[in-house]
Amino acid sequence: MAELVFFTGTMDCGKSTLALQMDHTHASRGRAGLLFTQHDRSGEAVLSSRLGLTKPALEVDDDLDLWEFVVDQVTAGRRVDYLVCDEAQFYTPVQVEQLARLVDEMDVDVFAFGITSDFRTELFPGSRRLIELADRTEQLQVRALCWCGKPATVNARVVDGVMVVEGEQVVVGDVTGETGPVPTVEYEMLCRRHYMRRMNSSAARAQSLSPDVLPFDLDLCALPGTAEPSPDGRAGPPAG
Ligand SMILES: Nc1ncnc2c1ncn2[C@@H]1O[C@H](COP(=O)(O)OP(=O)(O)O)[C@@H](O)[C@H]1O
Ligand SMILES: Cc1cn([C@H]2C[C@H](O)[C@@H](COP(=O)(O)O)O2)c(=O)[nH]c1=O
After folding, report:
1. How many angstroms separate the alpha carbon of residue 86 from the centre of ligand 2?
2. Of 139, 163, 182, which residue is a domain's last?
């Protein structure tokens, strides 16, 4: 029986890589699939992983009717056993409902991949509908890490080096620490504690260099549960 599965995690945890692996695994057993994406970092109509793999994909515009599109393909004689849907957080709730209908009425497996929440920690509408409708929601195993070394749970937006909590929900961008020109808008994965303190890696680095910071070990002096890792310790803001 076909399934609607939502694979989710923060940015940079391997979702697109897994999407391409799922396609490869199913295709190599003779199953016929279609790849969809929206606003991939590498451009239109491509599904790309940071590990370097890319594959052509169909771009999901807001007005694309996924049910109609797949039914038309099948009517034209094409077999469709599964769909791989990347960047599914950007799909509209109606498109997610169309995916669910394809599972239930056309027996097509749907593997959807996307982040759950935006830079304000609010659910994307598409992700919310996926969580509501999916047969299973799976958290990816490889977790991105905050600069402090803890598992990251939040995707923070950084504009010109400063973390922001207001702005448009959708701004395509990449993550910090990657090679290439530094973009104006980038994303950094943080643990909740550092997100709440608006402390991304460059803010932490600036604080650790500030003459206002007293020259003693904050870990020993802070109240229980509030200590920041020592700037000299193993986990701390990366040197910039
Ligand atoms: N050179 C590399 N060697 C091994 N793993 C890498 C390399 N570059 C990136 N990665 C891994 O690739 C993953 C990000 O892949 P990607 O599928 O693009 O993520 P997502 O779609 O979730 O944003 C991360 O887990 C990262 O650790
Ligand atoms: C948090 C957040 C992210 N985005 C964009 C940035 C990227 O282009 C994608 C996520 O891609 P990934 O493959 O998971 O790395 O989403 C956004 O538009 N708004 C946000 O708040």
Report:
1. 11
2. 139
The reported pLDDT for the residue numbered 31 is 98
Q: What number is the ipTM of this complex? A: 0.98
Task: Select from 149, 190, 158 the least CA-distant residue to 10.
Answer: 190
Tell the residue nearest (CA) to atom 4 of ligand 1.
51
Helices and strands in the chain: count of H runs, count of E runs:
7, 12
Question: HEC string of 181-222?
Answer: CCCCEEEEEECHHHHHCCCCHHHHHHHHHCCCCCCCCHHHHC
Indicate if ligand 2 lies below 6 Å from the C-beta of 16.
yes
Q: Are residues 235 and 121 located together in one domain of the fold?
A: no
CA 11 to centroid of ligand 2, rounded, Å: 7
Residue 183 has pLDDT above 70, yes or no: no
Which atom belonging to ligand 1 lies closest to the Cα atom of 18?
17
Cα angle 58, 64, 69 (rounded to 5 degrees) comes to 70
Whether residue 163 sits in one domain with residue 124? no
Domain containing residue 45: 4-139
> What confidence score (pLDDT) does residue 217 get?
43
* Same domain (yes/no): 40, 57: yes
Number of domains in the chain: 2
CATH code, domain with 19: 3.40.50.300
| pTM (2 d.p.) | 0.89
Residue 19 CB less than 6 A away from ligand 2: no
Residue nearest to atom 6 of ligand 1 (CA): 51
Using pLDDT thresholds of 50, 70 and 90, give the confidence band for residue 174. Answer: confident
- Residue 137 CA to residue 115 CA, distance in Å, equals 12
Question: Is the CB of 187 within 6 Å of ligand 2?
Answer: yes
pLDDT tier for residue 231 given thresholds of 50, 70 and 90: very low
Same domain assignment for residues 22 and 128: yes
Q: Please state the rounded mean pLDDT for residues 16-30.
A: 98
